[in-house]
């Protein structure tokens, strides 16, 4: 395959990796909001940087990664694989974290919105980021292997994707932090992603396009509401 022939699959894989990486950016942004302002960029950079290292390392173990699709055992007629177990564990963790954050935002007093360094340390939050990084990385690598066969394309796509995510993470995080309603929307988005991971682990595929389209529509509605409420409140 020539370099020109590799451009299309490379660009396709980069776009796909960016779409899959949106979940990661939102999760890191919400966790970073718990830290003092001077530590938030550090968590984003460390989280995304380690995600890149993890994905590059997993690419080096590509043969082992592909074995995760093999059936380990069967429960109620459902074949359980290593990938499925990892996706279910990550999905349940994401559901738990999202539900907990929504509860804190919706039920507790306003002081719960303030960064709490006694309950949320940088190390604890970084560990949570790494847990989700592992889940998203394995899913991403298996998806990449299904699309292309050249390792250099996979490596290039990972590096370019993480570079784009590093640039986009700060404005996305600032936007979510500035607008509380979008923070709830983002948490609901993560909740849906968590449920889709569990479903995928059980071999019940929910098309990602349905999920992203519904969330994009909800985001558009929130934008319209924000623009129409502001003039009314200023009267």
Automatic annotation (TrEMBL):
Bilayer topology annotation: Multi-pass membrane protein
Location in or out of the cell: Membrane
Transmembrane segments: 6-31, 43-66, 72-96, 125-146, 152-172, 184-204, 210-229
Protein name: TerC family protein
InterPro entries, alphabetized: Integral_membrane_TerC
GO cellular component terms listed in the entry, alphabetical order: membrane
Keyword set, alphabetical order: Membrane, Transmembrane, Transmembrane helix
Family assignment from sequence similarity: Belongs to the TerC family.
């Amino acid at each position: 395959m020539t370099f020109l022939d590799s451009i299309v699959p490379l660009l396709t894989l980069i776009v796909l990796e960016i779409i899959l990486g949106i979940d990661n950016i939102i999760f890191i942004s919400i966790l970073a909001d718990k830290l003092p302002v001077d530590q938030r960029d550090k968590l984003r950079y460390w989280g995304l940087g380690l995600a890149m290292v993890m994905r590059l390392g997993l690419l080096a173990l590509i043969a082992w990664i592909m074995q995760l699709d093999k059936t380990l055992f069967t429960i109620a007629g459902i074949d359980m694989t290593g990938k499925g177990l990892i996706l279910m564990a990550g999905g349940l963790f994401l559901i738990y974290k999202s539900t907990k954050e929504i509860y804190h935002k919706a039920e507790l007093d306003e002081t719960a919105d303030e960064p709490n360094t006694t309950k949320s340390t940088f190390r604890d939050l970084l560990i949570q980021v790494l847990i989700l990084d592992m889940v998203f990385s394995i899913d991403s690598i298996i998806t990449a292997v299904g699309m292309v066969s050249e390792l250099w394309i996979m490596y290039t796509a990972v590096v370019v994707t993480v570079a784009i995510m590093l640039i986009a993470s700060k404005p996305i995080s600032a936007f979510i932090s500035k607008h509380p309603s979008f923070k709830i929307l983002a948490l609901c988005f993560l909740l849906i992603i968590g449920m889709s991971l569990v479903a995928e682990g059980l071999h019940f595929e929910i098309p990602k396009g349905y999920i992203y389209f519904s969330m994009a529509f909800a985001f558009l509605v929130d934008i319209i509401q924000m623009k129409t409420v502001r003039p009314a409140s200023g009267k």
